User: What shape does this take?
Amino acid sequence: MGISNVPEPLRRRAEEAARQPAIEVVRSFLGGHLADAETLDEVRNDLRRIAQTTVRGLRRDLAAIESILAEPAQPGVLAQLVAWDANWVLDDASDAAAAVFLRRLADLLSEVIAERQADGQR
Assistant: This one.
């Protein structure tokens, strides 16, 4: 089904989501999937459950994380994302440690997406 065949309210919502800044996409992802999780295994299982239906949103989350990691961030931004938005405590509260953590999340997302693609999911 082409985008022109999608009902207007859904199309508008998809267009708004596509315009959302990467940092906001990452904040939403972290708050939605990590804030109450105790382990990365728990996060992985949650993402696998989502991937059973679709990986479209997971691809968007992955692209947003990779985008913020590719560009220099203002000091403290990455650390704040992990500490506040993800509610995750790292032994080292620096931006460098937060970048490593976010890279691990990007790798985890990539793995989950690859698993579903191997099963034929789009």
Observations:
- Helices lie at 8-19, 22-33, 40-51, 56-70, 77-85, 95-118.
- The chain has a mean pLDDT of 90.
